[in-house]
């Protein structure tokens, strides 16, 4: 399928959509990832035939054989992006081309069939247009899009699957953290690492998240909202959170974030914030930062703010860091001023309240 063919997804309207009154009630307080829209996109791939059978239809369960590859060897990738309600009632995606590129890179790393990037973008645009009534308009709310791909060959032999289903579902969301947490507490994972050099750390595959859950459970037991991972080689350098990148702000006004060396996810929010920070006149470094340095800098006051960022988490201040060997507070333990400024700069572009000098907004209607 080419771009123009992708526009002609076979469309079968959901004959049993949720009543408007029930939808509106759900949109009042959707939480994160619990409220789903009426439709989904699917496109199939098979070796020899390529991508075919693009559809938009009622969201429904898959019927899969128990020997389907994905159930056994986790050949699965996904993306996370949002459609934002604009001030004038329209809606826009944010840098969907960047998600399309990352999805393709993830597919290649997992030895899956790469979906053409224009088809990815088109599929997301079409779903948002069809389910436009599900885009919430409250501050901080959005329609979260979850494109994903699973291997569907029925086989227990270990090899790349010959068949795939690409699918996009959509979920009306509010804040990722309960109660919109003003600042989160992190747990330093010393027992577990997330990704090693040569592994799948920079791919967005389900396996990375499965591997992070024991560490996340440990964090929860310790009263922390999120886990922060250290590098797998020296167990010293800060990498990222389970589902977010991390930034540090210093008293000289400079900003630092771990470099993209293959073990962390190249976040689109991370990339956008680097650009916005430079627009605001800040110096930004992509350099490793050691956990013992972080503790010393937080205690001396050289480090003034730290925050996590991602599509789901947006920009979330880090208030405190705990671990078997660590316990320190960042700044006053609450939301810092520069963090707030960067968050506002990002949200203002995403919600169409500010000009879009970098061409990031993809207006849908
Ligand atoms: N790191 C991980 C492990 C993630 O799951 C995410 C979320 O997608 C991010 C970072 C941030 O990426 P993005 O800003 O593209 O959402
Ligand atoms: C996202 O921010 O889109 C993610 O995929 C992170 C996940 C933890 C919800």
TrEMBL record:
Needed cofactors, names only, are:
pyridoxal 5'-phosphate
Reactions the enzyme catalyzes: L-isoleucine + 2-oxoglutarate = (S)-3-methyl-2-oxopentanoate + L-glutamate; L-leucine + 2-oxoglutarate = 4-methyl-2-oxopentanoate + L-glutamate; L-valine + 2-oxoglutarate = 3-methyl-2-oxobutanoate + L-glutamate
Superkingdom, taxonomy of origin: Bacteria
Q: Which UniProt keywords apply?
A: Amino-acid biosynthesis, Aminotransferase, Branched-chain amino acid biosynthesis, Pyridoxal phosphate, Transferase
| Assigned EC number | 2.6.1.42
Q: Which GO terms describe its molecular function?
A: branched-chain-amino-acid transaminase activity
Q: In which pathway does it act?
A: Amino-acid biosynthesis; L-valine biosynthesis; L-valine from pyruvate: step 4/4; Amino-acid biosynthesis; L-leucine biosynthesis; L-leucine from 3-methyl-2-oxobutanoate: step 4/4; Amino-acid biosynthesis; L-isoleucine biosynthesis; L-isoleucine from 2-oxobutanoate: step 4/4
- Class of this enzyme: transferase
General function of this protein? Acts on leucine, isoleucine and valine.
The family note in this entry says: Belongs to the class-IV pyridoxal-phosphate-dependent aminotransferase family.
Protein name (record): Branched-chain-amino-acid aminotransferase
